[in-house]
Amino acid sequence: MKKRRDEKWNDRVTLNVGGIRHETYKATLKKIPATRLSRLTEALVNYDPILNEYFYDRHPGVFAQVLNYYRTGKLHYPADVCGPLFEQELEFWGLDTNQVEPCCWSTYSVHRDTQATLAILDKLDVEGERLSDEEIARVFGFEEEYHGGVLTRWQRLRSRVWILFDEPYSSLTAKCIACVSVLFTCLSVLCFCVKSYAEPPGIKHEEESSEDRSNNTGNVDPHRAFFYLEHACNAWFTVEIVLRCLVSPSLKRFAMSPVNVIDLLATMSFYTEFSAEPNLYLELLSIARVLRLFKLTRHSPGLKILIHTFKASAKELALLVFFLMLGIVLFASLIFYAERLQENPDNDFDSIPRGLLWALVTMTTVGYGDMTPKTFPGMFIGGLCALAGVLTIALPVPVIVSNFSMFYSHTQARSKLPKQRRRILPVTPRRPHWNHTDSGDRRFLASLASKSMHSTGLNNIV
């Protein structure tokens, strides 16, 4: 009995992690093999023979959960530790991050979503950070010439003009050009709207007689100022798109941009009004002038976030459209047969295709009222259609709002942080090296912690 008691006490081991001592049994540490703590020997450099303990300069809070994992077999995530730090600590101790308990997994995995969101915001450039000269040269492929100091006059002029038009936050001049572009965009849309109100569609001012104008009640000629203002706006757009096309780092990328395509079509629609007879297709092309408002996304971080929110919520929106189409077809068929169950001389649903529009406006809670059920079965189906539409549309809305809130909150947080931060970790001083060596244990632990040594800069592991 006494011998067993002595063996039990000799099996105890003391671990000093970050200044906090932990005591446990070697048998407990051997429950999880092939880990750092399962192969503790006195030959390790971490062993202090004077204090009879193993010292590790690691995070003590995370190690408490690591040791608890050896004891109970359940790995929990400490709420006061950042996710990447927790992963680094588990990697150092040789544990798998996938062993985190389900109750802590949602909290632990938040940092991965955060890192993905920050990577997206870096691509969107919603903060409008100013590019350095080296970064500009890298964009144009002039990096070697820049470092060699042999940039030509055209290369310098090209990059400067590109910065003025495509990087509105780079300088005061670029901000002024951006403000002028926004002003002309708004004025162009205003002129387009006023012109459509003032003149009858498909008739030019020059071809109208005074008698025709007097017969067009409710339509008057627009003020002459709008005519000159529209020409001034399109002159600016023409100069802008030509210059941006000439100095663009990549013509292919410039042509593939949806905003540039809209701007080009809108500018072309203005000149086609004077070079061709008016027709329906040219009038449809002039709608691109209103779409010029999407140019404001280059100057508004909020619009960039809103557009990317819809991209990030594409799955939810696709699911919404799918269930909406399913409900439209279902209730259009039901209302068609429900209105025929009773005598109904004023039946508006004489076919299923005519009921599709009614189902759409009912499920979207618009309700034009041009088609309504007249029988009790039809009214019952109409009520179910309205309830189903409310539930179908309301389900994905919180997801979209959550995505927008996530992107916007991260943008606000990033705007308050310093633009550049140093990420250099100090090298931890070495512990005293005692004359105990074990080549087998050293090779095992060195291979186990090679990644951790490089990522943290600690050179005193084993």
Report on the structure:
The chain crosses the membrane at residues 317-338, 380-408. InterPro entries: BTB/POZ_dom, Ion_trans_dom, K_chnl_volt-dep_Kv, K_chnl_volt-dep_Kv3, SKP1/BTB/POZ_sf, T1-type_BTB, VG_K_chnl, Volt_channel_dom_sf. Residues 11-111 form the BTB domain. This is Potassium voltage-gated channel protein Shaw-like. It is found in: Membrane. The protein has 3 domains: 10-126, Potassium Channel Kv1.1, Chain A, CATH 3.30.710; 168-197 and 223-299, Up-down Bundle (Four Helix Bundle (Hemerythrin (Met), subunit A)); 303-410, Orthogonal Bundle (Helix Hairpins). The model is unreliable at 201-219 and 421-462 (pLDDT under 50). Helix 16 packs across helix 20 (397-415). 60% of the residues lie in helices and 4% in strands. It has a 4-stranded mixed sheet with strand order 2-1-4-3. It has helices at residues 2-10, 26-29, 60-72, 83-93, 102-108, 110-124, 133-140, 143-148, 153-166, 172-198, 210-215, 224-247, 251-256, 258-275, 280-285, 301-312, 314-338, 352-363, 376-394, 397-415, 439-448, 450-456, and strands spanning 12-17, 20-25, 47-48, 53-56. It contains 22 helices and 4 strands. The protein is mainly alpha-helical and 462 residues long.
Number of helices: 22
Strand content: under 5%
Number of strands: 4
Helix fraction bin: 55-70%
Structural domains: how many = 3
CATH superfamily of the largest domain: Potassium Channel Kv1.1, Chain A
**Unreliable stretches:** 201-219, 421-462
Distance between the termini: 38 Å
